[in-house]
Amino acid sequence: MNGTLAKASHWAERLPPETLACERLAIDHDDEAPAKALASAPLLHLQRAAAHLPGRCIGPFDLSLRPGERISVLGPSGAGKSTLVKLMAGERKAHEGAVLLGGVDVARAPARDLAHLRAVLPQQHAVAFGMPVELVVSLGRLAREPDPGQAAIVAAALAAAHAAHLHGRRFDTLSGGEQARVQLARVMAQLWEAREGLVLVDEPLAALDPGLQFELLGALIRYANERAHALVAVLHDVNQALSHFDRLWLVNEGRLVADIPSGRAAVPHLSTLFGIEFECIGRPGGRFAALACPKAAPLREASA
């Protein structure tokens, strides 16, 4: 490996992004072929990565994704989906194997560097104090201090998450849906000026009304597409996964049971995964919806 490519393979150690941009420019002019090889490399690579939990092992996982990909993680409750997200984020140690983000082992990367590369919206995201909304969003910018553009980016992220009207409110006075918008804005603010980063969201639409689910999912996908961020989302709604994501990672009993393209051909796999039948219903424009049906006949009401 020549000196230029060796430098590029450790780009995550030389943040902030403007440094990375200069490094990429130098590579493009100095050694075109290695630069093309580097560009095609996975953004995230799980190499036989596994986490040991009390009484069970989650993994091992052999997975990779590239910038701009959209992946939905599906599986029954307790299947290991959230643990998989924590492994990818570097929030849970891989007891076996490794997780590489931008070619760097997340177990060895400083937290500040990881914050420049990936943003996480966890399943639980309560805020203990009555913080102003803009302060909650600015928490996503902590790794970039000093941050002279913070106020403008916070305002832009709130607008992108359809939450501009919440500016100045206290977080603990907001409804669940309003809090979800603010937390999404926090994630957006974290990687606002970055490109080809990784956004991990764990059940971001749980307990939200259908209209708000479509609104926030659309905002998240637009945000990721504009920056070529890879997006990995744990979802329970199979139609959202089938309609808006490129690939499906199906997880059950702590193991990956399928890594498949999204679409009609994935429906039989979903039926096996959840133990129910799905009926595909055609929609205009060649689209379809999967209607869940129990395999067994419904229970009859008990007689009085």
Write the layout of secondary structure elements.
Blueprint lengths: L2 H6 L8 H14 L1 H8 L4 E10 L2 E10 L4 E5 L6 H9 L6 E6 L2 E2 L5 H5 L2 E4 L11 H6 L11 H11 L15 H15 L7 E5 L7 H18 L2 E5 L3 H7 L2 E6 L2 E7 L5 H8 L2 E6 L5 E6 L11
Parallel strand pairs: 3-8, 3-9, 6-7, 7-8
Antiparallel strand pairs: 1-2, 1-4, 4-5, 9-10, 11-12
Helix pairs in contact: 2-3, 7-8, 8-9
- CA-to-CA gap between the ends? 79 Å
Biggest sheet, in brief?
A: 6 strands, mixed
The number of distinct helices, counting runs of at least 4 residues, comes to: 11
Using the CA coordinates, give the radius of gyration.
21 Å
**Number of E strands:** 12
Structure in words:
The protein has 304 residues and is α/β, with parallel strands linked by helices. It is built from 11 helices and 12 strands. The chain has helices at residues 3-8, 17-30, 32-39, 81-89, 111-115, 133-138, 150-160, 176-190, 210-227, 238-244, 267-274; strands at 44-53, 56-65, 70-74, 96-101, 104-105, 118-121, 198-202, 230-234, 247-252, 255-261, 277-282, 288-293. The strands form 3 sheets. Strands 6-7-8-3-9-10 form a 6-stranded mixed sheet, sandwiched between helices. A hairpin with a 2-residue loop joins strand 9 and strand 10 (255-261). Helix 2 (17-30) packs across helix 3 (32-39), helix 7 crosses helix 8 and helix 8 packs parallel to helix 9 (210-227). The longest helix has 18 residues, at 210-227.
